[in-house]
Amino acid sequence: MSLMIQTVHGEQIAPFIDDVARLRIEVFHEFPYLYDGDMSYERRYLKTFSQAKDSLLVLALHEGEVVGASTGLPLAQEPPDMQAPFIERGYEVERVFYFSESVLKAAYRGQGAGLAFFREREQWARNLGSFDFLAFCAVVRPEEHPLRPAGHVPLDAFWQHRGFQRTDMLCRMYWKDRDEPAETEKQLRFWIKPLDK
Predict the structure, then answer these.
(1) Burial 126-165 (b: 16+ CB within 10 A, else e)
(2) Among 135, 143, 29, 25, which Cα is nearest to 86's?
(3) Torsion-angle region of 64 (φ positive above 0: left; ψ -120 to 50: alpha; else: beta)
(4) Is pLDDT above 60 for 168?
(5) Which of 95, 102, 136, 183 has its CA 20 to 30 A from that of 62?
């Protein structure tokens, strides 16, 4: 199954919001996010990318269908609670480009889309010319989590091969897990990569 990679920016993101929203709900339903999402929230969340300065959306398309998506924007345009761990460690948030998420339908994994997502976002940040670091965060789940699938392999090695280093910097987000009656607090750990000039 050959994939086409397409990158759009700013207002060009708007026509893809519903496709990406459905994809986020589907993929983040899986472990480790276990997200019980809804379209109204997703549309509000993704609209910020269509309005944010210097944002991008990388799409993986198969026969015109959006089967994967990855987003990014300057950390300075994320909420204060996302910026706070960086400020506390002395980073200039204006110099950090944030990789928001990557989602890909299971049937299309292992075909290079994940590599393209990281490559395209990094190249965009480099071309903007005002960033020293790339960063993203990933949810922290205990090893003994009851919904952890047998044989689950974290993506740590993949991220390390892309040049990212795991940190002890954490942030908190709230969402409803698929086995929970209401939203609960989740911890997410930041990974950072220096953007060599």
Answers:
(1) eeeeebebbbbbbbebeeeeeeeeeeeeeeeeebeebebe
(2) 135
(3) left
(4) yes
(5) 136
| Contacting residues for 164 by C-beta, under 8 A, at least 6 apart | 134, 136, 191, 192, 193
DSSP assigned state of 78: S
Residues making up the chain, counted from first to last: 197
In tens, the pLDDT along 101-148 reads 999 999 999 999 999 999 999 999 999 999 999 999 999 999 999 999
What is the rounded CA–CA span in Å between residue 190 and residue 135? 7
**DSSP designation for 135:** E
Q: How far apart are alpha carbons 104 and 174 in whole angstroms?
A: 22
The first and second tokens of residue 67, run together, are 């089967």
Three-state DSSP state, 185: strand
Task: Parse the chain into domains and list their residue ranges.
Answer: 4-194
CB 84 within 8 A of CB 73: no
The structure's pTM equals: 0.95
